[in-house]
Amino acid sequence: MLSKFEVEQCSLSKLREFHERVLSFSDRFVKIHCKHYVSESITSRVVLGLFLSFFLAMACTYIFVFPRYQPAVRTYRVHQSGDLVPKCNVFYGNWIPDESYPLYNASQCPFAERGFDCVANGRRDRGYQKWRWKPKNCEIPRFNVHEILGKLRGKRIAFVGDSLSRTQWESLICILMQGVQDKRRDVYEINGNKITKRIRFLGVWFSSYNLRIDYYRSVFLVQPGSAPRHAPKRVKSTIRLDKMDDMSKEWIDSDFLIFNSGHWWTPTKLFDMGCYFQTGRSLKLGMGITTAFRTALKTWATWVETSVNRNRTRVFFRTFESSHWIGRNRNSCKVTRLPWLKTKGKDRSRISDTIIDVVKKMRAPVTVLHVTPMGAFRSDAHVGTWSDNKSIADCSHWCLPGVPDTWNEILLSMMLSKDGME
């Protein structure tokens, strides 16, 4: 069976062969006529006839050859099993205005943390809520919330990570609540807890759909611990890079696991606080943060490969979320009114690169949600000073509704498809 390229080459060869015949015919035609009329002057009628014959031959070439030739057209769409077309990478594209957004009102969602509800905290402009992510070569599927809830019936979704994971967890609950009629009776936190920054576990139950969506606070994914005996005075605590978080046993019984980590892997939240790295009984005072993060991810990868049921559980890992701190010490936060037109280098991150590299080498299937590039444009969507603590500006977390909703639109499309999107 000929490939598309071979068919095109064959068509072009036929075209060239036919064209050569036409030119040969024209040449013989001219010679015959010239010989016949050599003793006569070439009249205007003969010249006109020659031109008409030539253009008639060319017209035949076009009519009979070109309709059979189809130019190579490279198509892009959401990947389906068995397709030979290129996959669509939904994480590269641009933001376009869309008045159909936002997807919900944070003030009417009891699970949207007050600190992320920027409008309730005094932000007057709402333009940041009305942007839709447009991948370069496809569209993120628009979904019906009732249909989504039906497909998620009886499932358990667990988010594991830092406060950015909690933001995505809150966003997903607020999105799905739009499909629930009696929100107060049918959607509730299973232990009656309020949404707080420090609580290590939160679980929301959609009773009508037997759907549970959990959040586990595990900022390093591996186990924090106290300083070992005889450690230097500057060591106040350690991160056990070779041991998973002691809550990890509770994550296993899930249909979907979504991980993130990165914002706590900084000198200010580690070394400046007297926190250093440890493997086994060995204290690694000279180990850098990038090396430690990779070591911790390898521990996580081994845990996924050996502890997670691949036949039931789909695993996702979200990359580093672009922050927009500025200044020499990156301690100044200025929220813009519009998204940046260029990423200004924010589309790359060593944390994200490490995540992608570790996942590529895993034996177990894990889907990377590479949100770093799309967030790089959104200097307009951070909490800034519109939080529950206006004295501290924030260019790391996102307002709700906002950017995390797009993460969840992509996540839902992947969760509910067999192969998803790349």
From TrEMBL:
Keywords, comma-separated and alphabetical: Membrane, Signal-anchor, Transmembrane, Transmembrane helix
Bilayer-crossing regions: 46-67
Residues annotated as domain Trichome birefringence-like C-terminal: 140-414
Localisation per UniProt entry: Membrane
Superkingdom field: Eukaryota
InterPro entries tied to this protein: TBL, TBL_C, TBL_N
PANTHER family to which the protein is assigned, alphabetical: OS01G0880400 PROTEIN (PTHR32285:SF63), PROTEIN TRICHOME BIREFRINGENCE-LIKE 9-RELATED (PTHR32285)
Protein name as annotated: Trichome birefringence-like N-terminal domain-containing protein
Lineage summary: Eukaryota, Viridiplantae, Streptophyta, Embryophyta, Tracheophyta
